[in-house]
Write a structure and sequence with these properties.
Elements: H1 2-24, E1 27-33, E2 35-38, E3 41-49, E4 55-63, E5 69-76, E6 81-87, E7 97-105, E8 107-121, E9 124-129, E10 133-134, E11 139-147, E12 160-165, E13 171-175, E14 184-190, E15 198-206, E16 212-220, E17 228-233, E18 237-239, E19 244-253, E20 261-269, E21 272-280, E22 286-291, E23 302-312, E24 318-328, E25 332-335, E26 341-344, E27 347-357, E28 370-374, E29 377-381, E30 388-392, E31 402-407, E32 410-415, E33 427-430, E34 443-449, E35 455-462, E36 465-473, E37 480-485, E38 494-503, E39 506-515, E40 524-527, E41 541-544, H2 557-562, H3 570-579, E42 604-608, E43 630-631, E44 661-665, E45 668-671, E46 675-678, E47 683-687, E48 691-695, E49 701-702, E50 707-715, E51 721-728, E52 734-738, E53 742-743, E54 751-758, E55 762-772, E56 776-785, E57 790-800, H4 851-855, H5 868-890, H6 896-916, H7 938-951, H8 959-972, H9 993-1004, H10 1008-1013, H11 1015-1028, H12 1035-1048, H13 1051-1062, E58 1066-1068, E59 1071-1073, H14 1084-1097, H15 1103-1116
Parallel strand pairs: 2-8, 10-16, 18-24, 43-57, 49-57
Antiparallel strand pairs: 1-3, 1-42, 3-6, 4-5, 4-7, 7-8, 9-11, 11-14, 12-13, 12-15, 15-16, 17-19, 19-22, 20-21, 20-23, 23-24, 25-27, 26-27, 27-30, 28-29, 28-31, 31-32, 33-34, 34-37, 35-36, 35-38, 38-39, 40-41, 44-47, 45-46, 48-50, 50-55, 51-54, 51-56, 52-53, 52-55, 56-57, 58-59
Helix pairs in contact: 5-6, 5-7, 7-8, 7-9, 9-11, 9-12, 12-13, 12-14, 14-15
């Protein structure tokens, strides 16, 4: 007896100590949206509770598939809560992103959560125009509205461009670098008298980090405005037993008077059509009835399509209206709302069913019963004054059970599986938004809990991000409190509120969605007379908040009858706001991920060291040790078969693979008679076992490096298990390594084990350290055993040779013009110090000497970047590649891939063009760093202008930039006709004064238009070259001079230079090239030099003479 008393005392002391320890423990909460969006703010709420000292916490947003890594460190004082913002760059759907939090001082912890990524984001862009349809010669007036995600003004420094495109995609007008006035740009342009008819577009593009587009369309056609509209009124729903459908039809002129004329009503249901007619001779409406017995009805609900045609009495002009009426078989509809289901132990025990008329009015019948049948038992109830019948269940509902309800002629069936219990919460939130009138009064949210609340903290999420937080210290451990929140546009139309507190180490919370009316915080009103005479002066009363920009539009109502899609409507904006929600990773019903989590409504991820209860929805029976299965088959594709079907039923026996996963099966077929068909719904098969091993292996490792192999054991049984986990391998595959990178003590150790205690419905991980010993695929065998269950898997780990990769290439040209076959031997030159088992040979054959280059043409299309010189280095190849692709198009050799490459190159040309303008001086010249940091460079100006001229056929490059640059260069010309080297370059040009003069002249000669305009400049420069070319010995300068003479039409001088160059050429193995290297060693500069000479020779020499030169640059690129 004394021993028992002593044990009780010790236990009570231990419990009191534990409670005191829990109460004194410091807790943190880190709350953030579960969804991350491109070019939007991402706000994280960090709070410290019950702490005695401040904490330093590091927050990271990182991508597991790219280099994105954003980091911030925050310091949080005890009982403090703060918000910290991340500015998110462009995201990509295919990449995975995580939020990581790490306590580095005060509290030590590390947690991470996966985030859902949305590649859309950035500013909200809306457009409107005064009309939706225009006639030739009209002036199109439009507005562009660019606002933040909360519909507020935002500062955008990136260039904004507006383009007007005709139906063929031709740009007919451009507004560049527009300036917003309080987020609004207003523009206009006039249509010609002969514009293309059809759908025109207004395209808004924000450059830079946003790279965002918005498209708006309007119509251009020849039309006459309608003068009246037709209105068709009929009930939305009609019970079939009522037989007659009442219809009202009338026409109204745009000035409000009724239309006289003849009305024809046509009703169609399936293949049955009925028509009724009536004449309207008075200023009134026409009343008709359609007899449903004249239509072919079925035992199902049907849709009756109505059309009303009204022919005006005076002009015989006809207009029409449409409407759909639902023909119902039953008189009432029945619904079960979530709020009318009460749960006990996670299962429904009280249900309320609503009975309504089809027009949504309440059925007030307290004499006829509503019957519910459930599990063979009939329950009877009567409707309340609110039209609700309530039932209390006698038996628990299973997933396969059905609820059946009847009221008079109406029945309704609900599967039990559709009735899902709400997530258990520790408190209740209540508020009244029905009486919301304006934003001046705070919303009151009543928080009620069964337990005393030491404090309350809330986060408010609007438009997908946390917009507000507050921590409230409560006195006297109250069980209820009223939170006051001032409404704002961030909460329109819906916002999500999460309220929580931590009590005795437990995270307790409740959440709700706040529904506010679809209204705006910025109020505006416009008042004027309702009836006036034409030409009369009137006064409009505009009420708006100070410091506002108000845009007013007034159009003829007839315009809206023709097309009203141009109007910027409230619903469009509200739906846009509704779409921006925060979500977390989806919970799969019936899976082990379906655990209690405070992120269902709010879409938040919560990191905390406080505890919260979790409930598993999955129960699986244990398996015996004797049923151990060896899992070795882990392909990513299970079935990929073609089957010849000869019988109506074809059994297909297949073995499910060994991966613990869900397999999705899809299928389609082609029948000789009926053609193509496919599954209406894909089949999902879940492969699962309650105890299994999960191994995370890298794609590949290096031989000899130490590798950590994490092994996780999942236990979804009802009890805790102690598992012996072992890794087994052949001695020659790998060796085990101890901490400190030391090999295992036992020689030829082939097995290593560890013990893991795995709680019920949980998992634990362990790490094995190995060092691979051979190249190739090695076996990694893992076993996990306990007293009742076990698992065994065999995975393959790819091991690559160590060292640094070196590629050696050999290439030979084979001509089969004279022979049918050729035999060539390659002697592989393998270095003596090669890493064993790392040899790799690859043979590539191409039928085109340019094959390798053209196959990798997309690698040359790169986005321009860097300074003025670097930007042009990237931009110029894009233009040359477009020239090549254009030639393919002209010869009808273009493919889908080349079309896509052309679009990509055009896009990069636009980017490079815009960026190059940043380095433009007011003189028209260009420099490496721009007008504020460097003087004009004559070489860069000539190079930029030459490619701007080339690029005009692919992009809307303004003539003014070309003309200003040519004017600048002409002014730089010296009296002798040469041009001075001027301005800084990272890679100075190799030409002497003669070569540089020819280089600049090539820019003037690029376009016949400018060649005519600057004829005197060109003549002066060519005279300078003509007088000196015979004395020039520099090969590079001669090459450029030959091209200049060819362009200028002086072929004799060009031929003389080419003859001179032939004598200076290098020749070997049937190849010809040129070099400026005194040692006659080939270099990258020789490719440019030889290419210049080849371009000049192609104008005068036969192709066979050019082939040895043409082949050399291609082969040079494949030198080792």
């Amino acid at each position: 007896m004394c021993n028992r008393t002593h044990c009780r005392i010790v236990l009570l002391i231990f419990l009191q100590f534990y409670v005191l320890l829990v109460q004194c423990e410091s807790h943190y909460t880190i709350i953030a949206p579960g969804t991350i969006r491109s070019n939007r703010n991402y706000t994280v709420c960090v709070a410290l509770h019950n702490a005695s000292e401040e904490a330093h916490i590091k927050l990271d947003i990182l991508s597991m598939d790219s280099s994105l890594h954003l980091s911030q460190e925050v310091t949080v004082r005890p009982n403090e809560s703060i918000l910290t913002d991340f500015v998110i760059p462009q995201l990509f759907k295919r990449f995975r992103y995580q939020l990581r939090a790490e306590g580095i001082k005060g509290l030590i912890f590390s947690e991470r959560r996966n985030l859902l990524a949305k590649d859309t984001g950035g500013p909200r862009i809306y457009l409107e125009s005064d009309k939706g349809t225009y006639k030739p010669g009209d002036v199109v007036q439009f507005r562009v509205v660019i606002l933040s995600e909360h519909l507020k003004m935002m500062r955008i420094v990136e260039p904004i461009r507006v383009q007007i495109l005709d139906p063929l995609g031709n740009r007919v007008k451009q507004f560049k670098d527009i300036q917003l006035n309080r987020g609004i740009f207003t523009g206009k342009f006039q249509l010609s008298q002969q514009p293309l008819a059809g759908t025109w577009s207004i395209l808004v593009h924000i450059s830079g980090k946003y790279n965002q587009d918005k498209k708006y369309t309007f119509q251009v056609e020849r039309y006459v405005l309608p003068k009246f509209s037709v209105h068709l009124e009929a009930p939305k729903d009609l019970v079939e037993s009522e037989r007659f459908l009442p219809i009202t039809v009338y026409g109204k002129y745009t000035y409000g008077r009724y239309v006289k004329g003849t009305v024809k009503i046509v009703g169609t249901i399936h293949d049955t059509t009925i028509a009724e007619g009536i004449v309207i001779d008075e200023d009134s409406k026409a009343e008709l009835k359609i007899d449903l017995e004249k239509l072919t009805l079925t035992r199902y609900d049907l849709n009756l399509a109505l059309k009303a045609f009204l022919e005006e009495k005076y002009t015989n002009i006809t207009a029409e209206a449409k409407r759909v009426v639902n023909i119902r078989k039953t008189r009432y509809k029945m619904n079960i709302l979530d709020r009318d289901i009460e749960f006990r132990n996670g299962k429904p025990y009280r249900i309320g069913v609503h009975v309504e008329h089809w027009n949504n009015s309440i059925v007030r019948d307290m004499s006829n019963p509503v019957v519910m049948e459930f599990k063979g038992v009939n329950y009877t109830s009567f409707l309340t004054e609110n039209g609700v019948a309530r039932f209390t269940l006698q038996n628990d509902a299973g997933e396969d059970d059905m609820f059946q309800f009847w009221y008079k002629d109406t029945g309704k069936t609900y599967p039990s599986v559709d009735i899902v219990p709400p997530q258990p919460m520790s408190c209740v939130l209540q508020t009244d938004t029905d009486n919301f009138k304006d934003f001046s009064k705070p919303l009151e949210i009543n928080v009620t809990s069964n337990d005393p609340m030491p404090f309350l903290m809330y986060t408010l999420t609007g438009h997908g991000n946390i917009v507000r937080q507050e921590k409230l210290q409560l006195q006297d451990q109250v069980k209820s409190h009223i939170i006051k929140i001032r409404p704002s546009i961030e909460m329109i139309p819906n916002s999500q509120l999460l309220v929580f507190y931590i009590d005795k180490g437990l995270f307790k919370y409740c959440e709700m969605t706040i529904h506010l009316p679809k209204t705006f915080e910025n109020k505006l009103s416009l008042v004027g007379p309702t009836r006036i005479k034409p030409g009369q002066n009137i006064t409009l009363n505009l009420k708006a908040q100070p410091n506002s920009l108000v845009s007013i539009t007034a159009v003829d109502k007839s315009v809206l009858l023709l097309n009203s899609k141009n109007i910027l409507q409230k619903d469009i904006i509200m739906n846009d706001l509704l779409d921006d929600k925060s979500y977390t990773s989806p919970v799969i019903r019936g899976s082990t991920s379906a655990l209690s989590s405070p992120d269902v409504q709010t879409g938040l991820v919560i990191l905390t060291n406080a505890k919260h209860e979790k409930y598993s929805f999955l129960e699986i029976e244990k398996s015996s040790l004797d049923q151990m299965y060896y899992r070795v088959d882990f392909p990513e594709t299970w079935l990929y078969k073609d089957l010849e079907i000869t019988q109506p039923n074809t059994p297909l026996t297949v073995k499910v693979l060994d991966t613990v996963t869900t397999w999705e099966l899809r299928a389609f077929s082609v029948n000789d008679e009926t053609g193509f068909g496919m599954l209406e719904e894909n089949l999902e098969i879940e492969a699962f076992q309650p105890f299994f091993i999960s191994v995370n292996l890298p794609y590949a490792v290096k031989r000899g490096e130490t590798v950590k192999v994490p092994v996780t054991i999942f236990n979804y049984l009802r009890e805790q298990l102690q598992s012996n986990v072992s890794m087994i391998g052949r001695s020659k595959d790998f060796e085990f390594v101890n901490e400190g990178n030391v090999a295992g003590a036992e020689q030829n150790e082939t097995k290593r084990s560890l013990m893991l205690d795995i709680p019920a419905n949980n998992a634990r991980s362990g790490i094995f350290m190995i060092r691979p010993q051979r190249v190739g695929l090695i076996d990694i065998e893992i076993t996990a055993t306990s007293g009742v269950v076990s698992d065994r898997v065999l995975h393959k780990l790819k091991v690559e040779p160590e060292g640094v990769v070196h590629n050696r290439k050999q290439e030979v040209l084979i001509s089969l013009s004279q022979i049918k076959s050729n035999q060539t031997t390659f002697q592989a030159e393998i270095p003596a110090d090669i890493v064993p088992d790392s040899e790799y040979l690859q043979l590539t054959v191409s039928g085109d000497v340019m094959g390798s280059t053209l196959e990798n043409l997309d690698n040359l299309v790169q986005k321009p970047k860097g300074c003025g010189e670097q930007n042009m280095i990237y931009l110029a190849p894009n233009i040359l590649i477009m020239d090549h692709l254009q030639s393919l198009e002209e010869r009808m050799m273009a493919t889908n891939a080349s079309s896509g490459l052309m679009e990509k190159a055009k896009q990069f040309l636009d980017v490079g063009y815009q960026q190059q303008l940043a380095y433009r001086h007011s003189t028209g010249g260009y420099s490496v760093f721009g007008p504020d940091s460097s003087t004009e460079s004559n070489w860069l100006t000539a190079y930029t202008t030459r490619f701007f001229i080339k690029g005009q056929q692919y992009s809307a490059i303004e003539n003014v930039y070309i003309e200003d640059a040519l004017k600048y260069l002409s002014q730089q010309q010296l009296d002798d006709g040469s041009f001075p080297h001027r301005g800084f370059l990272f890679e100075p040009a190799h030409q002497n004064r003669f070569g540089f003069a020819a280089f600049v002249l090539l820019t003037f000669l690029e376009s016949p238009k400018y060649a005519r305009k600057y004829r005197s400049t060109i003549q002066k420069g060519m005279t300078f070259l003509n007088e000196n070319f015979k004395d020039v010995q520099d090969v590079y300068s001669l090459a450029i001079m030959a091209n200049a003479f060819q362009k200028a039409g002086n072929s004799s001088n060009a031929s003389e230079i080419l003859q001179k160059l032939k004598s200076l050429s290098q020749q070997r193995n049937g190849l010809m090239w040129w070099t400026n290297n005194l040692k006659s060693e080939e270099s990258a500069n020789d490719v440019e030099l030889t290419s210049y000479i080849l371009m000049a020779m192609l104008e005068t020499s036969p192709a066979r003479d050019c082939l040895p030169i043409f082949n050399w640059p291609t082969l040079w690129a494949y030198r080792p």
